[in-house]
């Protein structure tokens, strides 16, 4: 019997949906909470663990018998990969599986900020009618310059979506794309400082690394065009949230949308919560109901491949 656990606490209904994809001789359980001891308890006797947002620590990687940790999605910065290597635990992910969902969410957030859709909705729900007030700061996206920080799977899909708006698209990242790729996506490479200075909208779609942690801070926010927008669907740690909040309060930025935060779930007192010009969503960009079956099927296939003694697809292997 193979035991697989989901480290993020999920309701029974979601657990049953995942069970439908498992071989008959596999069992599935979920943690009762995110508390460290509950996480350790659920891992006892487990062959495989699936994780979305819960940190997978060195202590968890040392669990006897644990063969692999599979990320539900892509970003693995909350998984202790060094400990995984030390204990012979494989780490896998579903590379590119949520790229379309995230890119569509980013586009939706850009439009919502640009057109004051959330502020308008909240006002009408309160019985107000601030048509003239919101009209002063509502802008069109068409023809504007958009800067994409991190032209990976998500960034490339976003660039394609933006092409329909006639946007000029700048991008930056660790590696510059080939001339053919740049031409296909109609994007132009720029250094981060130049991208921030030129873009009307900046979308963060990069991984969280030592290089990108705190990359968007008081100094780099100061480089952005007055009245520009920032959307973060990457990782909360890329942004110094207190500095972003100050840029919004001062009016230097017209708006910002965050789907990710330095601490999740968001702690009381987070400086971005409650600001009129901020849209905050609970890390839902990668989630899509119609992406559930393909993603679960792919994860289970990767784990079954490990059991058979073969290697999963290289693009899904982290450790």
Give the helices and strands as they follow along the chain.
Answer: EHEHEHEHEHHHEHEHEHEHEHEEH
Instruction: Tell me which CATH architecture of the largest domain applies here.
Output: 3-Layer(aba) Sandwich
Radius of gyration: 21 Å
Q: What is the percent of helical residues?
A: 25-40%
Family: Belongs to the D-isomer specific 2-hydroxyacid dehydrogenase family.
Keywords: NAD, Oxidoreductase
Protein name: 2-hydroxyacid dehydrogenase
Domain D-isomer specific 2-hydroxyacid dehydrogenase NAD-binding: 107-285
Plain-language structure description:
InterPro entries: D-iso_2-hydroxyacid_DH_PdxB, D-isomer_DH_CS, D-isomer_DH_NAD-bd, NAD(P)-bd_dom_sf. Residues 107-285 form the D-isomer specific 2-hydroxyacid dehydrogenase NAD-binding domain. Belongs to the D-isomer specific 2-hydroxyacid dehydrogenase family. With 319 residues, this protein is of the alpha/beta class. It folds into two domains: 2-97 and 289-316, Rossmann fold (3-Layer(aba) Sandwich); 99-280, Rossmann fold, CATH 3.40.50. Helix content is 35%, strand content 16%. It has 13 helices and twelve strands. The chain has helices spanning 12-19, 36-43, 58-61, 81-87, 99-114, 117-125, 131-135, 153-163, 179-185, 192-198, 218-223, 241-249, 292-307; strands at 2-6, 26-30, 48-51, 68-71, 90-92, 145-149, 168-172, 187-189, 201-204, 228-232, 253-258, 278-280. The chain has a seven-stranded parallel β-sheet with strand order 8-7-6-9-10-11-12, sandwiched between helices. Strands 2-1-3-4-5 form a five-stranded parallel β-sheet, sandwiched between helices. Strand 7, helix 9 (179-185) and strand 8 (187-189) form a beta-alpha-beta unit. The longest helix is centred in the middle third of the chain and has 16 residues, at 99-114.
